[in-house]
Structure formats: C-alpha cells, structure tokens
Design brief:
Elements: E1 2-3, H1 14-24, H2 36-56, E2 63-66, H3 69-82, E3 89-94, H4 99-108, E4 113-118, H5 128-134, E5 139-143, H6 157-167, E6 171-175, H7 187-190, E7 194-198, E8 209-213, H8 228-231, H9 239-254, H10 256-277, E9 282-283, E10 295-299, H11 305-314, E11 317-318, H12 334-338, H13 343-346, E12 349-353, H14 360-380
Parallel strand pairs: 1-11, 3-4, 3-5, 5-6, 6-7
Antiparallel strand pairs: 2-8, 7-8, 9-10, 10-12
The protein binds pyridoxal-5'-phosphate.
Pyridoxal-5'-phosphate binds next to helix 3.
C-alpha cells in the first residue's frame, strides 16, 4: 500500500505509541486526584503542556487540551462569542475554512451573529485588503486558517492579524491543524489570539488536540462540568491522548525544517511525474512557498474523482479527492468551488499528501499508477 493521504491522518509514530503506554497502563490515575496516582498522571499532562508551549512559543497556561481539532475550532469560535449571545455582533471567516470552523460560524448566525464569508482567489488565498473592507466596529472575531486542508494554500495570517488590529477590536483565530510540523507556528510572531492544532495529523493519536488561548482572551467553556483545564474544557483529561499530542507535536517541530524540505522535493517530483503522464492535469492551489510542502493537488479533466479514487485504492494507492469528510459525499468541495474551479473540474480533483514515511520509491510508483488509472478511466468513460 502506498499511503498518500497524510492530510486526512497519519500513522501514530512508534515513539508516541511507546510514551502513551504509560498512561494506558500503570499510570492510570485521574489528574484531578491529589493522591500519588493522580499526581503521577498530572505530571504527564504538565509535561505535554510544557512541550506544546515550547512548540507554539506560548505560556503553559495558554494551552487548553481538547478532544481534537474540531473541538478546538468550536471552542475558539463559540467560547468568546457565547458570552455575547444577547448582544450579537459580527463574525468573519474565509470561504475555504474546514467545516469545523465554517459550520460552527454558520451555526452562530442562529444565535444572532452576523457572518461574512471572505472570498478567495483562484489559489484559495485570502486577500488582506478584502478583510480590511469587511471589518466593522462590531466585528468580534475573525477566523482564517493557516493552511488549507484541501489544496495546501498558506494564508497570510500575519498580515490578516495586522489588518484586524488596525481596523477593529476583534479576536483572531487561526486553524493551524495542517500547518503543525510544516511551517513555523510561533504565536508571538503570528500575533493570533487563538490557534488550533490536532495530534493525528502529526503522528499522534486521533481525538486529541489543543487550543492556544492568549492570556486575557475571555472564553466560556463549550463543555461544562468539573472545571478542568482552568474551567475552559471540562472532563477528565484524555491522558494518553494528551501525552501523544505533546510528544508528536514536539517531534514534528524538531524535524520540521528537514522534513518540509524533503517532502517539498518529493511533492514537486510527484507533480512533475504525473504531469508527464497526464499533461492536461491542472495543478490547483498556490505554488512554491505559498503552499504546504507535502501537498500535490490536481484537477484531472475527464477523470471523475470518486471513480479515480476507487481505482487508485484497488491499485494500492490511498489518496483523496479533497478533505476526508468531503470525499465520500457527492457534493463538490466548497473549497474548490470558492476558488472558482468549474464544478466538473472540482469533481475531478485528486489530493495526494505526503508524510514522514513517504519515500521517493512511493512517489515514482504512485505517479505511474495515477497515470495508468487516469488513462484507463478515460478510456472507459464516454466523453
Ligand atoms: C484544517 C483542519 N481543521 C480541523 C480539522 C479537524 O481536526 P480533527 O480531525 O482533529 O477533529 C482538520 C482535520 O480533518 C483539518 O484539516
């Protein structure tokens, strides 16, 4: 099997699995218990928090553990806004956000908030000037992702934050789920108030994530209960998941520069090889430094996405059309449509995403298989 769907999820790293064995076994205490077993578990949670603070360049108390990226996105949007429910206000997100942001923002309109969805250009890029034009005195929150999960485009978050600071008092959230381990995630440099990460995109377990919440940002919990995580996320901590997240994020950050360069070269090679075999395939998203290093995305005329994915799957290549949630559904991706791709091309999209375990042999073989399967699919599909 050639696994080229690392944007959907990644295999759990051996080092991470090994470290998770402690809290899955002998270190079983509840971190809120004050006895020895509880303190032992607490020390693991503390270590993971230290590690994330190091990766994100923030204070330890600014890290809130969640049950994954989607929950962190929900907390980032609902947390600051729920306390303003009666007053309403204005919210801005980009058209190309992951559903965890986009659907949450749309849901908030039912609670009286007004929503502006920012247009993007053909690369999926949000123009800071567009943001400047839609800001209002009552804008409460702006959420634009750091890196897009369907085409890998990097958004100009620093610039966008600057625009927000100049034009409003709004908070700025960025979903950095795909960016962790690929681009620097220094929250001081970025200037954001809230930032989402998820463990399973970087060799950690599924169901574990975190939200950076800048000191002083008012935030109500979405999950109420025992008041864990300084009253920002109740529930007994998922200690194995938190341990896995802390180590996976730290390792991903330590290896970031070397891995990003290696994967960038492999992704470029993959794109080139496929274009040799399928010359009319059209690369989507931004190019070069404007995108994540591990993404190869193409619209392939006449190769319906779901059919191609099935063929690739049979031939041993795990790939995706857009995001894992979008593929499997027949609706064309909201991201590709927002980028202005014609619906037929949006339905003929292939996303190949590389990871730590991807080799040049994988890339060469996968390109051959893609070329062959596209040719066969085209031969069997009436024009
Ligand atoms: C950009 C982005 N945001 C949020 C998520 C959701 O993260 P999780 O799967 O941890 O809920 C994903 C992953 O699917 C993603 O790619």
């Amino acid at each position: 099997m050639i696994y080229l769907d690392h944007a959907a999820t990644t295999p759990v790293r051996a080092e991470v699995r090994a470290e998770m064995e402690g809290p899955l076994g002998a270190i079983f205490g509840n971190p809120s218990s004050t006895h020895a077993a509880g303190r032992e578990a607490r020390s693991l949670v503390d270590l993971a928090r230290d590690r994330l603070a190091e990766v994100l360049h923030c204070r330890v108390r600014e890290v809130v553990f969640t049950g994954g990226g989607s929950e962190a996105d929900n907390l980032a949007l609902r947390g600051p806004l729920s306390r303003l429910r009666g007053e309403g206000g204005h919210l801005v997100v980009s058209r190309v956000e992951h559903e965890a942001v986009l659907e949450t923002a749309r849901d908030l309109t039912r609670e009286g908030f007004e929503l502006t969805e920012l247009e993007v250009d053909s690369r999926g890029w949000v123009d800071p000037e567009c943001l400047a034009r839609v800001l209002r005195p009552e804008t409460r929150l702006v959420s634009v992702m750091l890196a897009n999960n369907e085409v890998g485009t990097l958004e100009p978050v620093r610039e966008l934050v600057r625009v927000v600071r100049e034009g409003s008092d709004a908070l700025f959230h960025t979903d950095a789920t795909q960016a962790l381990g690929k681009v620097p995630l220094d929250v001081q440099e970025l200037g954001v108030d809230l930032l989402t990460i998820s463990a399973h995109k970087v060799g950690g377990p599924k169901g574990a994530g975190a939200l950076f919440v800048r000191h002083g940002v008012p935030l109500d919990p979405v999950i109420t209960g025992g008041g864990q995580e300084r009253n920002r996320r109740s529930g007994t901590e998922n200690v194995p998941g938190i341990v896995g997240l802390g180590l996976a994020a730290l390792l991903a950050e330590r290896e970031r520069e070397a891995e990003a360069e290696r994967q960038r070269q492999l992704a470029a090679q993959l794109t080139e090889l496929i274009l040799e075999l399928v010359p009319d395939a059209r690369p989507t998203g931004a190019s070069g430094a404007g995108r994540l290093p591990n993404f190869c995305t193409l619209a392939i005329p006449g190769a319906e996405g779901e059919l191609l994915l099935m063929r690739l799957d049979r031939a041993g290549v795990c790939a995706s059309a857009g995001s894992a949630c979008a593929s499997g559904s027949q609706a064309p991706s909201h991201v590709l449509l927002a980028m202005g791709l014609e619906p037929e091309l949006a339905a003929a999209h292939l996303r190949l995403t590389l990871g730590r375990t991807t080799t040049s042999v994988d890339v060469e073989e996968a390109a051959q298989i893609v070329g062959r399967e596209v040719a066969q699919l085209r031969a069997t599909t009436p024009a």
